[in-house]
Amino acid sequence: MTMGLTSTLRHAMTVRATFKATLVALALTLPAQAQNDKMTPIAIPAQPAAIELGTGPLPDAKVPESWHSQYGSLFARNVTVATLTPFLPDPAKATGAAVVVAPGGGFRTLSMSNEGWDVAKALADKGVAAFVLKYRLNQTPADMQAFEQSMREMFSGAARPARPKPDDMIAAIAPQIADARAAFALIRRRAAEWRVDPDRIGMVGFSAGAMLTMATAVAGQDAKPAFIGNIYGPLAAMTVPADAPPLFVGLAADDPLFGNTGFGLIENWRAAKRPVEFHLFEQGGHGFGMYQKETTSTGWFDAFTRWIAMHGYLKPKG
Description:
globular, four-stranded antiparallel beta sheet, Rossmann fold, eight-stranded mixed beta sheet, plasmid, hydrolase activity, disordered N terminus, alpha/beta
């Protein structure tokens, strides 16, 4: 079923019905064992080679990109220009499949190590070309203390938010959707160079990145991921297109954001008779990503790669 852009974006935005209430906590993407770790400002670090996506600078952005460390990981903030970083497998191992990796951070930060580069490296080791999407972010104060204070202030008033209107939700994520679509377009343009099958490109996102993944999956035919992964993103009910891609979901039951909000998304995918696999881990909290923890949530990546293997993406087509 082909849907108009406006209607599909409206469907996608139902995934974000809890966005205002969870924005601050998403920005922190806390692993349970390190909730008190301090954000420490750092110089912009050396990074794997990235490619600008050509979606332009974030409109009206005045605060430049900055980085900080936390939980032994690296986070980007105030990203104003979107980029894509390729992590290509050894040609001898390449399967032709690819995955766009969307880190989380409440659309205010990006967990570049834990939910970006580390995921991409692990996928490349499996023979899957991986591309970390550093999408544009909502602006935050340049000063770290002011940023932390703004988060506290927002969180103090987040418990009773007004339900966002669909048009407001669409506008709130429009730049990120544009960045994701541009990422798919770039990979398909350079598919031969990167040994990627244009029809075998999936997407996996974490927290806010999972919201972006769900939106990208139903926002139009130009991106159209072959498969999608929603890792500790919201599972709010949504209208599922008839041609929706296979969906993998990983969530911890003790996730303070989404562990007790129902599983409408899973039910909707099943009702639409589209493939879905759901892992509800007993423990893990929110933001576990590639952190090694004493919980079974650490096994999400192995489960995800077994799932894409079941769908034929860990071996060359044909």
